[in-house]
């Protein structure tokens, strides 16, 4: 193929000449269109970018005149469009032509229309306002009898279409699903898929039609529908399990060669179709034994058939392997898949090798023995000339890192890091190294040095949480205080050494880390005095290459060190120098420093030694300024508007067209695309699905939090061994293990070939043994039956193994049950079972400390559990709310049935409810009521009991409410007869229309006695705001978005005694009493969310400080935060 | 999903760029430059896959490219596409171009940008692979060309003649598959009371 192209174009100018002379195929024919040729020729002849710019600007201005001229025919316009497309592609702005592109699509004949549509789809983006002008054209073309016009319209719809205008074309496109031409049906399916992507709620009703498309008689249409299914199954596999059989059947027929021959590609039947189907099956069979069983046969068949040695068969094989390892495992298939991976890894073709490594990375946790099998290949790949292969290898090693091979692996990663220049790679790799170092560092020196390398290479591109985590780790320390001090001391010393190096350049971030550590922990030094440290910092401060941000860090460090220093000449010069600095920030720091120096008492108070982890009392609300503010306001100053409010006002001014339906409580600015409907449904919370996905998100977030903590806990495993864990014997020193391994490898390797080995080979094997140490012991417990063949290579001494296996038996049983069903990420935690036990203990103790909750005992399946911070005893435990997600209609019918039954407590068992309370009575009748706090409403149940011995007639119950409340769904208020000594139940659901604190629901009951005089009784029930508050389950991310989009906020500090203000107890109170949902806990701050029924969200951010809580509410409703704050103060006061 | 398809020559001059996700003009140009920068410094005998740069990248996205004489064909895809599958798709694309232009060369791409886009539209629609069968694509393109030409010719002719041509059907090869025993159950909708 490449030959064909090769022979054509080697010298552009020559060809142009030829074209001119002969008018060849590539040359432009019409005189007008030859302008493009001229343009291209001109550009090619140019040498500098500047000249090109000039030429194009010239061209654009002449085009501008042409397109605007009334004499320009459509045909000319078409040529102009092509030239505009060319200019835009080169990156020049041709926006003046956009409107003409739309006009061309509107008015042109087929050929011109096509160019018009093409230009539109290249020029405009989804939210471009001109796009609205296209809608009419699209609608017209969709209705055209000309197939090509319909095709063009469908294509443009699937490329760009304004979300708000979907309803205008949706019915037309749905019709096209029944079109007689398969190409139209196919394009219609894809257009609908596009709609599903940008506005899923608008196409919900046509899911049945997708199913029809799947069964279409034409393969192409079926294949197109697979795109949709792949997507939807990825989002939620459980609702499509019933289709598994169909997918399997389709794949079977495809693999079996039942398709017409023209579907073959290099005599492989429809390879892309197969790939798609295999992916779908992988998603469906994940963690599901029954579904997986359906597909074992066809997977086996696919593996068997894909024997041809062509690129595309490898694509199928790769998907097969991926699927086999994704679904519920079957050992036969796994064995075959493992052999396939071998084929990939050992292939001389570099693409296949890459994929082989990828596959290995994917399966490594399930089957570490595979890595051992291919260890020599992996070692070779580490030195591969292709950096991509190297990176993939490092990724693989990253997955198998444990406490024993960490030093070698990190060393390899650092080597790679030093060679690469791509920012993306550095960011990625630096993060991984930092993570591994925190988790498995063998000792202090290594840890600090590794982190030094990370900071100096990763420098200013890395994720900011790396230095943050590192500093927190240093500051918070571990259980052992002396160990912590040593770590800090080591860090301080190593930084001083680094700063001594002449002419060394360090990234700003690294300098910031250094200055913080020096400021905090320089007091640990015995030899160097604080003065010396200050001198070094001063030298840095004077360096011109230092950014002003870093300067602030440095001066902060100097400030911290000042109380410890005896003489302070340097500080004085420093103050002198910076009090006249032009940098206001520095100047302020200098003045602060000066003031502190003059007031020693204050200085000691403000800057205590080694108290970085202890909170300080800060008046966050700046209440001491209140007087000043009041005075200024009196003098006519404008009241302060928070940043977000200002921004919103600005946005409101800018907004031109509002497509959002009115009445939605969410501001549109916070959402884009697919998130918008999700956000709204979060509020209403009526669909079980949306709540569940929301839940998943929070879970995954939680997980990450836990992982980080593990990292910290998992760090320094040695210390754990000696200090806490007596059962685990100190593993044999690494060296001896390596030696042993090497011996074994050598003896094993030596058998077939000659006895002599090159040095290089030996070095490689040594490397291998140090890389793969720790995997061997694990392989003994893998389920896949290949362990015996490998494990002898890397077995530890039996003694150690026995002890270990004893220790982790429980972990074994648990792990083996869930081993293969775990997803990739979960596998990550299974790294080494050895570490696992410890981690688990650690994690448990940590969590129970924090939240004091029973439910944590089951946390080894953390992933599966819902929000873990709910205590079991909680009044509104989320568990209760989650189980039952009725749709409105079913809920009502259920309630109806139950309410007619005589037993009172049958229905409420599913929901939280209040106690039965008598609201009024006389000698014949008694009315009691209780509240049921349902997910979507407040249900009031009234039970009218006839206490007399005779029956009552024409009983009437009438409920009236205040204006703030709305009573809906009143059921059967009138009963002709109440029999003697019986009870009747009525119910109604109540909605709150305006937030309030306390409301009254009053009612009247009328009835007639046998002697026919009528009696009327009045009663009333108090409702509180809390009756309408429900937890709002959102993820931290959504919280962030919502937070910014809400304009109404209220801040307040609540004073509390120290014991009450502790985070766990405060959380518990808020959760139980106010029914808030805990979104996240970050340090001493908590994020909570709730909603006022039906769907007004309110967010709470609170921070614990020494003697109280700082509460900050935000909501879309202006009054809700105030009311909630009031409630909050009330419950906090009570507890 | 395919995020973008880029063709540029050995000097980084873009010859075709098609984005299936909205990026601003500037970002598009940056992506083209960054992609060229990444791809051009790769040797001939290394793998055809790249983890994307920062702009189009993220850990989820990949660049899959092929180098033909003076041109690089680069597909930016997310994780839901098969690497090898896309590699063959590029091959199909190039072969199709070759068929449609009879020995395609860089100049064809320059002077017939619109045609190339049309061919691409028959293969990939809205980021989804629509058709992978070269013959099928060529048939579609040919039929469209024919129809367009004839329409242009009939521009002044009576409307009847035009509609006669219009109703000339596109060739359709029977490509039925027997998926007979699929029984898809329509899920029961919750009844509303």
Automatic annotation (TrEMBL), chain A:
InterPro entries in the cross-refs: Adaptor_Complx_Large_Subunit, AP4_complex_esu, AP4E1_C, ARM-like, ARM-type_fold, Clathrin/coatomer_adapt-like_N
Example of a GO cellular component annotation carried by this entry: trans-Golgi network
Compartmental location: Golgi apparatus, trans-Golgi network membrane
Keywords annotated in UniProt: Golgi apparatus, Membrane, Phosphoprotein, Protein transport, Transport
SMART domains: AP4E_app_platf
A single BP term in Gene Ontology: vesicle-mediated transport
Family (UniProt): Belongs to the adaptor complexes large subunit family.
Protein name: AP-4 complex subunit epsilon
Automatic annotation (TrEMBL), chain B:
Phylogenetic lineage: Eukaryota, Metazoa, Chordata, Craniata, Vertebrata
Localization terms from the record: Cytoplasmic vesicle membrane; Golgi apparatus
Membrane topology, record value: Peripheral membrane protein
Any one GO cellular component localisation term in the record: cytoplasmic vesicle membrane
GO-annotated biological processes: Golgi to vacuole transport; intracellular protein transport
Domain AP complex mu/sigma subunit: 1-147
Keyword Transport: yes
Sequence intervals crossing the membrane: none
Coiled-coil ranges (or none): none
Protein name: AP-3 complex subunit sigma-1
Organism: Chrysochloris asiatica
Entry-linked SUPFAM superfamilies: SNARE-like
InterPro entries: AP_complex_ssu, AP_mu_sigma_su, APS3, Clathrin_sm-chain_CS, Longin-like_dom_sf
Function of the protein: Part of the AP-3 complex, an adaptor-related complex which is not clathrin-associated. The complex is associated with the Golgi region as well as more peripheral structures. It facilitates the budding of vesicles from the Golgi membrane and may be directly involved in trafficking to lysosomes. In concert with the BLOC-1 complex, AP-3 is required to target cargos into vesicles assembled at cell bodies for delivery into neurites and nerve terminals.
């Amino acid at each position: 193929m490449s030959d064909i192209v090769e022979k054509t174009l080697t010298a552009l100018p020559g060809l142009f000449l030829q074209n001119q002379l002969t008018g060849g195929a590539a040359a432009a024919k019409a005189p007008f269109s030859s302008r493009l040729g001229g343009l291209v020729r001109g550009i090619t002849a140019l040498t500098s970018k500047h000249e090109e710019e000039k030429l194009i600007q010239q061209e654009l201005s002449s085009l501008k005149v042409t397109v605007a001229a009334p004499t320009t025919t459509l045909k000319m316009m078409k040529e102009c469009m092509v030239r505009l497309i060319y200019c835009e592609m080169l990156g020049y702005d041709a926006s003046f032509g956009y409107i003409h592109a739309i006009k061309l699509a509107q008015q042109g004949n087929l050929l011109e229309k096509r160019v018009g549509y093409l230009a539109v789809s290249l020029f405009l983006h989804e939210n471009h306002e001109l796009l609205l002008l296209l809608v009419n054209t699209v609608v017209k073309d969709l209705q055209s009898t000309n197939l090509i016009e319909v095709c063009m319209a469908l294509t443009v719809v699937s490329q760009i279409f304004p979300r708000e205008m979907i309803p205008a074309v949706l019915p037309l496109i749905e019709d096209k699903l029944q079109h007689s031409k398969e190409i139209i049906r196919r394009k219609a399916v894809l257009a609908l898929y596009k709609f599903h992507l940008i506005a899923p709620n608008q196409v919900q009703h046509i899911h049945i039609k997708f199913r029809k498309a799947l069964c279409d008689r034409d393969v192409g249409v079926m294949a197109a529908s697979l795109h949709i299914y792949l997507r939807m199954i990825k989002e939620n596999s459980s609702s499509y399990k019933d289709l598994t059989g169909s997918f399997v059947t389709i794949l079977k027929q495809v693999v079996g060669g039942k398709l017409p021959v023209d579907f073959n590609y290099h005599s492989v039947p429809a390879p892309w179709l197969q790939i798609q189907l295999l992916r779908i099956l992988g998603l469906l069979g994940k963690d599901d034994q029954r579904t997986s069983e359906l597909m074992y046969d066809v997977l086996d068949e696919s593996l068997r058939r894909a024997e041809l040695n062509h690129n595309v068969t490898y694509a199928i094989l790769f998907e097969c392997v991926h699927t086999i390892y994704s679904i519920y495992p079957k050992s036969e298939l796994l064995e075959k898949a493992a052999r396939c991976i071998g084929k990939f890894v050992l292939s001389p073709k570099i693409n296949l090798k890459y994929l082989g490594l990828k596959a290995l990375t994917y399966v490594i946790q399930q089957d570490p023995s595979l890595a051992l099998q291919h260890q020599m290949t992996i070692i070779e790949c580490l030195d591969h000339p292709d950096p991509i292969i190297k990176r993939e290898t490092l990724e693989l090693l990253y997955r198998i890192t444990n406490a024993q091979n960490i030093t070698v692996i990190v060393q390899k990663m650092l080597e790679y890091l030093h060679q690469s220049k791509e920012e993306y790679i550095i960011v990625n790799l630096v993060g991984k190294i930092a993570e591994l170092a925190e988790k498995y560092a063998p000792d202090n020196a290594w840890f600090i040095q590794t982190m030094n390398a990370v900071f100096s290479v990763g420098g200013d591109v890395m994720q900011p949480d790396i230095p943050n985590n590192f500093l927190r780790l240093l500051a918070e320390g571990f259980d052992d205080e002396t160990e912590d001090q040593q770590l800090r001391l080591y860090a301080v010393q190593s930084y001083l050494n680094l700063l001594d190096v002449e002419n060394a350049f360090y990234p700003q971030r690294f300098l910031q880390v250094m200055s913080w550590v020096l400021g905090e922990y320089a007091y640990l030094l015995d030899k160097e005095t604080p003065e010396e440290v200050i001198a070094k910092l001063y030298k840095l401060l004077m360096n011109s290459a230092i950014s002003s941000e870093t300067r602030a860090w440095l001066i902060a460090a100097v400030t911290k060190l000042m109380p410890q220093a005896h003489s302070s000449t340097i500080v004085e010069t420093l103050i002198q120098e910076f009090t006249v600095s032009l940098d206001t920030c520095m100047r302020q720091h200098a003045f602060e420093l000066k003031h502190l120096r003059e007031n020693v008492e204050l200085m000691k108070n403000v800057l205590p030694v080694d108290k970085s982890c202890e909170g300080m009392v800060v008046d966050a609300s700046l209440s001491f300024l209140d007087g000043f503010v009041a005075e200024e306001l009196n003098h006519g100053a404008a009241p302060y508007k928070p940043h977000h409010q200002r921004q919103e006002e600005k946005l409101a001014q800018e907004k031109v067209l509002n497509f959002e339906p009115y009445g939605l409580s969410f501001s549109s600015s916070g959402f884009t695309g697919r998130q918008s409907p999700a956000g709204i449904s979060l509020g209403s919370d009526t669909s079980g699905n949306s709540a569940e996905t929301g839940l998943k998100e929070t879970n995954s977030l939680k997980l990450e939090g836990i992982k980080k903590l593990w990292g910290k806990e998992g760090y320094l495993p040695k210390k754990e061994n000696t200090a806490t864990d007596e059962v685990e014997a100190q593993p044999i020193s690494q060296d001896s293990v390596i030696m042993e391994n090497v011996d074994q490898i050598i003896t094993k390797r030596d058998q077939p070939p000659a006895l002599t080995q090159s040095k290089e080979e030996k070095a490689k094997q040594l490397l291998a043994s140090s890389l793969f140490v720790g995997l061997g012991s694990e392989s003994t417990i893998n389920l896949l039956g290949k362990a015996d063949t490998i494990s002898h290579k890397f077995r530890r001494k039996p003694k150690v193994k026995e002890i270990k296996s004893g220790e982790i038996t429980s972990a074994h049983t648990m792990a083996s049950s869930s081993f293969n069903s775990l997803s990739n990420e979960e596998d990550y935690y299974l790294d080494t079972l050895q570490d696992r036990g410890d981690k688990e203990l650690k994690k448990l103790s940590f969590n129970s400390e924090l939240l004091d909750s029973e439910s944590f005992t089951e946390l080894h399946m953390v992933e599966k559990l819902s929000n873990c911070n709910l205590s079991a005893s909680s009044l509104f435990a989320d568990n209760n709310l989650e189980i039952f997600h009725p749709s409105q209609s079913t809920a009502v019918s259920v309630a109806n049935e139950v309410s007619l039954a005589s037993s009172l407590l049958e229905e409420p068992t599913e929901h939280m409810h209040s106690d039965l309370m008598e609201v009024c009575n006389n000698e014949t009748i008694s009315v009691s009521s209780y509240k049921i706090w349902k997910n979507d409403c407040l249900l009031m149940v009234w039970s009218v009991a006839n206490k007399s011995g005779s029956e009552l007639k024409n009983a009437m119950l009438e409920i009236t409410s205040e204006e703030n409340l709305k009573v809906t769904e009143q059921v059967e208020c009138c009963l002709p007869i109440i029999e003697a000594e019986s009870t009747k139940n009525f119910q109604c659901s109540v909605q709150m229309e305006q937030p309030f604190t306390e409301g009254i629901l009053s009612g009247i009951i009328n009835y007639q006695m046998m002697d026919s005089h009528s009696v009327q009784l009045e009663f009333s029930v108090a409702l509180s705001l809390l009756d309408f508050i429900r937890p709002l389950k959102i993820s931290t991310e959504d919280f962030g978005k919502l937070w910014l989009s809400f304009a109404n906020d209220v801040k307040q500090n609540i004073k509390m005694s120290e014991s009450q203000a502790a985070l766990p107890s405060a959380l518990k109170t808020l959760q139980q009493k106010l029914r808030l949902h805990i979104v996240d806990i970050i340090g001493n701050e908590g994020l909570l969310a709730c909603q006022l029924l039906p769907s007004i969200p309110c967010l709470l951010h609170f921070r614990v400080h020494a003697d109280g809580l700082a509460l900050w509410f935000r909501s879309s409703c202006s009054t809700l935060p105030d009311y909630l704050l009031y409630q909050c103060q009330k419950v906090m006061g009570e507890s | 999903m395919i995020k973008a398809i880029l063709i540029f020559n050995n000097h980084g001059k873009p010859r075709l760029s098609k984005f299936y996700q909205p990026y601003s003009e500037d970002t598009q140009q940056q992506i083209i430059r960054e992609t060229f920068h990444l791809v051009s410094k790769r040797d001939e005998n290394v793998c055809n896959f790249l983890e994307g740069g920062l702009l189009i990248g993220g850990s989820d996205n990949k660049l899959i490219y092929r180098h033909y004489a003076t041109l690089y064909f680069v597909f930016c895809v997310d994780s839901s596409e098969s690497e090898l599958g896309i590699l063959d798709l590029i091959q199909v694309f190039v072969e199709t171009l070759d068929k449609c232009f009879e020995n395609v060369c860089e100049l064809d791409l320059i002077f017939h940008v619109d045609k190339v886009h049309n061919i691409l539209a028959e293969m990939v629609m809205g980021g989804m692979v629509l058709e992978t069968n070269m013959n099928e694509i060529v048939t579609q393109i040919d039929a469209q060309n024919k129809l367009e030409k004839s329409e242009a010719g009939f521009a002044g002719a009576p409307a009847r003649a035009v509609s006669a041509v219009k109703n000339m059907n596109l060739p359709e090869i029977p490509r039925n598959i027997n998926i007979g025993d699929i029984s898809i159950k329509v899920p029961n909708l919750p009844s509303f009371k």
